[in-house]
Amino acid sequence: MKKSPEKITLGLLQHPCGPDPEANFATVLTAARAAAADGAQVICTQELFRTEYFCQIENHDIFRLAEPIPGPTTEVFQALARELGVVVVASLFENRAPGLFHNTAAVIDADGTLLGTYRKMHIPDDPLYYEKFYFTPGDQGFRTWDTAFGRLGVLICWDQWFPEAARLTALAGAEVLLCPTAIGWHPSEKAAEGAAQHAAWQTIQRSHAVANGCYVAAINRVGHEVPAGGDGLEFWGQSFVAAPSGEVIAEAGNAQAETLLVEIDRAQVNEARTHWPFLRDRRIDAYDGLTERFLDA
Amino acid sequence: MKKSPEKITLGLLQHPCGPDPEANFATVLTAARAAAADGAQVICTQELFRTEYFCQIENHDIFRLAEPIPGPTTEVFQALARELGVVVVASLFENRAPGLFHNTAAVIDADGTLLGTYRKMHIPDDPLYYEKFYFTPGDQGFRTWDTAFGRLGVLICWDQWFPEAARLTALAGAEVLLCPTAIGWHPSEKAAEGAAQHAAWQTIQRSHAVANGCYVAAINRVGHEVPAGGDGLEFWGQSFVAAPSGEVIAEAGNAQAETLLVEIDRAQVNEARTHWPFLRDRRIDAYDGLTERFLDA
Question: What is the CA radius of gyration of chain A?
Fold first, then answer.
């Protein structure tokens, strides 16, 4: 394992997206440089930061937005990581092969090495979140990378709702779960359901921190995007970091671009796990049913 | 599956315990009758309601407090259930055989039938929670029962911290997870850590409701118990019910006996699971590692 400092500063880039991918990319590169100048050592983008959240519509033309990994965007980030000495986790629309696309995060070490990718394992399909049209579910499982600044795991948006995903990534050694996200309100539901929806989202991610004794960082976009007409989606931002205790130690607002700079203390992982020794007591002899769809047989 | 009404009223019995088990039992029987008179259909006790929380000390004399199941306490509850037409879930110190003890919940249907037992699967061992001395971990796995008032599962205290336990019980069909509990503050930690500890406890249980689209009901004792001298434990009560949305729909105070009467709507389970379709998208092909201790091989 690499020698990482005990205390590490995360830089989480929350922002609105416009229709021009290159403009969004420029926004992120500027924000990443500013974050690094302010001490960020692990920089993470929101989900699919280069584009508006195109999954609100099913349109074959959109596949042209995808790119290979390694590819043009990761090359720029590799150069940036090397120059600034920061780890970069970037959420991208991956074109793996003709007709084969993933919702993928690239993990780049502080020396510019592309360590690998995490391909979103759980793909949603809900009104205006038509991701099953675009993304093949990941085939690499749940992964972590030993970086210059801690052992990191990535989960992407819908993955956040599955305790199995967080557990497996923690069991693979993650000290921090980085969760690029694109979640928002249907404007017609916001008044009645909005608060409960946001609370559920924050609650389940805080629970991953508690259950696994690790940090969880969620990076979510802001902005009201209406690519398909109608009401569109109002992305709720509120990127946050939960400590291994489950406490929210930093949280962004819900309406504008904001970089969260959050110092974390890797020693808190061991502290939490010895004071709340859940890993000690898991009943792995009795968990076989977790690989079943339902236990109605 | 039995025909249960769509709406069911839970009666959750939170109370302090004194040194006399028969007096505690009388308290519970009185509270159970009052709850049933007020409309409760599923009555659930707090963890080990007959006694003070004896696991603060390791003392062989305490094993004499255990009883068989079926046994004297379940016989009384079976008669009560039959008389009042209520389901009873009772947390007991089970003497299964000489030298073999469990922390067990008995599940009794509204006709007085003892449907079975859930034996606590995850056993803690922490300062003043010396449960590994007393209780053999359960060997029956995670279970549910089809009662006159819904399909119920039981998790006991430390189990609550394991997403695997909630998931497996939900996959076995639970509409409601009933969680008898004995958790409190070390008085010396309360000022600095108390709020975060309670928040973590509520958060992870709310997360089980969210992840599984089911109701979660936690029933916790109150009272400052000092059986071993020293500071003892200040049980924090705050029994609550979380809806499948994760919202807390009822919550008791932290200092006195209180019966929570909470109407739940079984239709909300299907409502939550179709609007947040996590069961649809679990990656059961990729969860094998959950039966491993750690993925460091």
Answer: 18
Structure tokens at B111: 């006709």
Active-site residue, A179 included: no
- What residues of B are annotated to the active site? 47, 120, 157
SS3 state at A141: coil
Residues A17 and A24: beta-carbon distance below 8 Å: yes
Q: Do A283 and B121 touch (CB under 8 A)?
A: yes
Tell me the H-state helices in A99-179. 131-134, 163-171
Q: Show the domains of chain B with their CATH numbers.
A: 7-278 (3.60.110.10)
Contacts of B167 in chain A (CB under 8 A): 163-164, 290
What is the predicted ipTM? 0.97
Type of residue at A187? P
Q: CA–CA separation, B113 vs B86, rounded Å?
A: 11
Mean pLDDT by 10 residues, chain B (297 residues): 88 98 98 98 98 97 98 98 98 98 98 98 97 98 98 98 98 98 97 97 98 98 92 98 98 97 98 98 98 94
Show residues of chain B in contact with A291, CB under 8 Å.
Answer: 284-285, 287-288, 290
Q: How far is CA A39 from CA A2, A12, A154, A178, A259, in A?
A: 20, 12, 21, 18, 12
Nearest CA to A148 out of A31, A42, A18 is that of A42
Identify the CA nearest to A197 among candidates B265, B245, B277. Answer: B245
